[in-house]
Design goal:
heterodimer, A: MetI-like fold, 73% helix, B: mainly alpha, MetI-like fold, 77% helix, 0% strand
């Protein structure tokens, strides 16, 4: 670049506002959250936090509610990603064809992903409503739900909301996989055909390996998103019935706003962030490997 | 013969595609259809509406609290999108066009906030906003919504800068333009559609945001649309039709803007991920 030596500080000035905002709204809260987790703070007892060292972490280790929520969160996260891929990959393959229908559907398939959670959550609640819900009627006929909505059944609610969470993420998988499919050079298929590979073999040895990297990376991104879900569960079930859908995101919120223990909520967040950090580093490494 | 069989296979696959798409989009179609059904038809739970009505939209838009929330969401969304763009543009330009010490690290610092889920920093963020007396204010929402829009804006704009050849700028320098002039007169006009698309994206992220608003705002005065929709639902007597109509009002701008700017957004969507 021209005259870079004269402009030594120029790029730093350009970056400064973004760095300041990132520090203010993300990095500083992150650090403050960790500091809070080392304090005792029960809002009904005291307006200010007092130093407590690792007491919160010790409590967390033996907190059965937390570990149950932690286990549910893994079920929820894996379930969400499995649903996303189980529907998303076949659909991407269907849409990776040069027909008018495939093109038109590709545009609209984004809708579940871009529709805000609050809207889809109420839509699904309506569908599952025990008096008026269309889907509830089907579930009742299939004897998957009784008189009451499936959302009133502890196990049913967890499975149903996990499915809905996966449903909402399907378009993301479709779009990412379509991009990956389109980037496979046609020569690869031609070469495989010349070598005598049949349709099935071409899929097995050309298509699948090309999708693998993308699948791993978006699987991690979607997993991280699911791990910290809050909106969908809170709007649909508030973590109930009897805590059966209380995943960690819900625990954090409840500990803060219902139990009025912000520092204990911050402790849960800090532990979850440690898990996230590992996942994020893994993602970055894989993404770099992909590029 | 094989041509016919191929065509037949494609038609069959097209039919399958349509079936899957309809099933997948059904919950959203259901929201839309229900919002136009008369109250009596909703109770009848039929699939095809027998009559269409705007009564639910009239009822929802007749609620002062909902209309207020509509205004609040517009203000918060526009403000946070504009600030995100104003801050992200120079940052993205620096990351794309300059070599300097710490470039990767500073870039990563900004981008990593993208991976930070709202729920993870919810507690400290709310405590800080309460201390600054910014809870229950639109200002507080604008600031916190920057966590959604800024990193993705930097990420996507950097990609667009990278896609514009440097030769264009260098040619302008040879003609005597300064670096800033080249940026403003040559590069930015080329990027205008992309900038609008990214701003739109930031707006939509703020528009549908739920958990931060829920945690920061309790007064009706400062509620945004998602909270107002929840308020429609919460009381013991509510109308599904009205909740669905409110939902459509929230969904339409988000869906429409995405469909319009799809071309520009998809690449960034896939590479940057989106925060929930």
């Amino acid at each position: 670049m021209r005259a870079l030596s004269k402009l030594d500080f120029y790029p730093y000035w350009l970056l400064l506002p973004a760095v300041i905002v990132a520090i203010l709204v993300a990095i500083a809260p992150l650090i403050y959250g960790f500091v809070l987790s080392l304090h005792d703070w029960y809002l009904l007892r005291s307006p200010v936090p007092t130093w407590a060292g690792l007491a919160n972490y010790r409590e967390l280790l033996t907190d059965e509610d937390f570990w149950l929520a932690f286990a549910r969160t893994w079920f929820w996260t894996l379930g969400t990603v499995v649903v996303e891929f189980a529907i998303g990959i076949p659909l991407a393959l269907l849409l990776n064809r040069d027909t008018a229908v495939a093109k038109a559907v590709s545009a609209f398939i984004l809708m579940p992903w871009v529709t805000p959670f609050i809207v889809v959550a109420y839509g699904w609640r309506f569908l599952l409503d025990s008096e008026l819900g269309l889907l509830h009627g089907l579930l009742e006929t299939a004897s998957l739900a009784g008189d009451r909505s499936i959302l009133a059944d502890p196990l049913g609610a967890l499975v149903m909301v996990t499915f809905i969470s996966g449903w909402k993420g399907v378009p993301f998988v479709v779009i990412a996989m379509l991009a990956a499919l389109k980037s496979i050079p046609a020569e690869l298929y031609e070469a495989a055909e010349i070598d005598g590979a049949g349709r099935r073999q071409r899929f097995r040895f050309v298509t699948l390996p090309a999708l693998r990297n993308t699948a791993v990376v978006i699987g991690l991104i979607l997993g991280i998103l699911a791990f910290y879900s809050f909106d969908l569960v809170w709007i649909m079930t508030r973590g109930g019935p009897v805590d059966s859908t209380t995943i960690v995101g819900i625990s954090i919120y409840q500990t803060f706003f219902a139990d009025l223990r912000p520092s204990y909520a911050a402790t849960i967040s800090s532990v979850m962030l440690a898990v996230l950090l590992v996942a994020a580093l893994l993602t970055l490494r894989l993404r770099r490997a992909e590029a | 013969m094989t041509m016919d069989r191929d065509r037949l296979a494609q038609v069959a696959l097209d039919a399958l595609t349509l079936l899957v798409a309809v099933l997948l989009l059904f919950p959203i179609l259901w929201v839309a259809v229900s919002s136009f059904k008369p109250e009596g038809d909703i109770l009848a739970a039929g699939l095809i509406p027998r009559a269409l009505t705007l009564e639910h939209y009239r009822a929802v838009l007749g609620e002062a609290a909902f209309v207020r929330a509509l205004g609040n969401s517009l203000i918060v969304g526009l403000a946070s999108a504009l600030i995100a763009i104003a801050v992200a543009l120079p940052a993205a330009y620096a990351l794309a066009r300059f070599q300097f010490r710490g470039r990767e690290q500073l870039g990563l610092l900004v981008l990593s906030t993208q991976m930070l889920p709202s729920v993870a920093i919810l507690v400290p963020l709310v405590v800080i906003m309460r201390t600054l007396e910014l809870s229950n204010t639109l200002t507080g929402l604008v600031i916190t919504h920057l966590t959604l829009g800024l990193p993705i804006a930097v990420w996507m704009l950097r990609g667009y800068f990278d896609s514009i050849p440097r030769d264009l700028e260098e040619a302008a320098w040879i003609d005597g333009a300064s670096q800033t002039q080249a940026l403003l007169r040559i590069v930015l006009p080329l990027m205008a559609p992309a900038v609008v698309a990214v701003a739109t994206f930031a707006f939509v992220l703020s528009w549908g945001e739920y958990v931060l608003a829920l945690s920061l705002v309790s007064s009706t005065q400062s509620k945004t649309l998602p909270l107002a929709l929840q308020a429609l639902f919460d009381p013991y007597s509510f109308s599904w039709g009205q909740v669905m109509a409110g939902g459509v009002i929230i969904a339409v701008p988000a869906v429409a803007l995405f469909l319009i700017f799809r071309r520009y957004l998809i690449g960034g969507l896939v590479s940057g991920g989106v925060k929930g």
